[in-house]
Design a protein that fits this description.
Elements (H helix, E strand, L loop, with lengths): L12 H12 L4 H12 L3 H4 L6 H8 L2 E3 L19 E3 L7 H10 L4 H14 L3 H16 L4 H12 L2 H7 L7 H15 L7 H18 L7 H7 L6 H15 L2 H9 L3 H6 L7 H15 L9 H13 L15
Antiparallel strand pairs: 1-2
Helix pairs in contact: 1-2, 2-5, 4-5, 5-7, 7-8, 7-10, 8-11, 10-13, 11-12, 13-16, 16-17
């Protein structure tokens, strides 16, 4: 497909019309995937433009057909319930995950997106679709126009046990999927709306939900479950854990929660557990997040001194245990 660009055309019609036509061409899934890849890398502010014709196409790919006359993409997202005239379709075999992420960046109404996620979660079957689902949730929360909307979006997700089961589940899937889940949670925990008190409380509720979803009656806390992955032989899993724990530690309530966990302080001070360079760096970032949080004022002086020593030694410190034998 060749797109003609005319500098005298300001409304983008000559660019976007062939893109929309290509997305509608169900006989050419490779073309559809290529266009979706282009849309996915676009800035959110560009994707938020008034392309009402884009949303119905994306909705069809994620398994929903919507009455366009009943659809208003510009409606304020205040968490109220709306009724949309929708019908169920199969998920697009190749493009569903990408379409879901694009819809997330488009700021479609909250109740509609919640409905989309529930429908998508019940239909998805493969890992690619599951990754699209997981990324779709965090993208939607983090791409909101203001803190209030982001809080409302996270509240809605936390209120749907079915969505949490699919989003936060670490019990199933390969290590790649587990890392995607951890990264998705980290993205939400680090988003801008967390600066507000309500945002911090909601993010702690999200963190606690990890244990609720994955515990299965064993009585394990979220931190206990996450710390088990630190012992993994798979590097990517350990890196995912470090990033998640660092995101938690940047929340003062989260830092307090982590330091309450038995053995966490010893874990921070043990420089021999991680042998991979990137892992050492990420774990060092975790220590810095703890030291720079308000929890540091609640810790005993000897604990603070040891953590400060870890910072001073740097991420690559290795204790020299060699003994030099001296002869007379």
């Amino acid at each position: 497909m060749v797109i003609k660009v005319d500098n005298e055309v300001n409304d983008g019609t000559e660019i976007w019309k062939p893109l929309m036509d290509g997305l509608r061409d169900e006989n050419d899934p490779l073309l559809q995937m290529s266009i979706l890849e282009l849309l996915e890398v676009m800035d959110r502010d560009d994707l938020i433009q008034d392309w009402k014709e884009l949303d119905p196409i994306m909705l069809r790919m994620v398994g929903m057909d919507i009455d366009t006359e009943d659809y208003d993409q510009d409606e304020p997202m205040d968490g109220t319930t709306r009724k949309f005239k929708v019908s169920s379709l199969p998920l697009h075999p190749f493009c569903a995950g990408a379409a879901l992420r694009i819809l997330a960046k488009r700021n479609i109404p909250l109740d509609l997106y919640r409905h989309v996620l529930l429908s998508f979660g019940r239909k998805m079957s493969g890992e690619v679709e599951k990754i699209g689902f997981v990324d779709g949730i965090s993208t939607y929360i983090c791409c909101q126009r203001n803190e209030n909307n982001a809080s409302n979006a996270l509240k809605a997700i936390l209120g749907e046990r079915e969505l949490l089961e699919e989003w936060l589940n670490l019990r199933m899937g390969q290590s790649k999927l587990k890392v995607v889940v951890m990264n998705s949670i980290s993205t939400v925990l680090l988003s801008n709306f967390v600066q507000e008190e309500e945002g911090q409380s909601l993010c702690m509720a999200l963190y606690q939900s990890i244990g609720d979803i994955n515990d299965v009656g064993a009585g394990h806390s979220t931190t206990e479950i996450i710390m088990e992955y630190v012992k993994s032989q798979l590097v990517e899993l350990r890196l995912g854990v470090y990033e998640l724990l660092t995101a938690v530690a940047k929340n003062d309530k989260g830092a307090h929660e982590l330091m309450r966990y038995g053995g966490f302080f010893e874990f921070l001070c043990n420089r021999n557990l991680e042998i991979v360079k990137e892992g050492k760096e990420l774990k060092f970032d975790l220590v810095k997040s703890i030291v720079h949080s308000k929890v540091i004022g609640l810790l005993a002086s000897e604990v603070v001194e040891k953590l400060d020593q870890v910072i001073e030694d740097g991420p690559y410190y290795v204790k020299d245990n060699r003994h030099v034998a001296l002869s007379d």
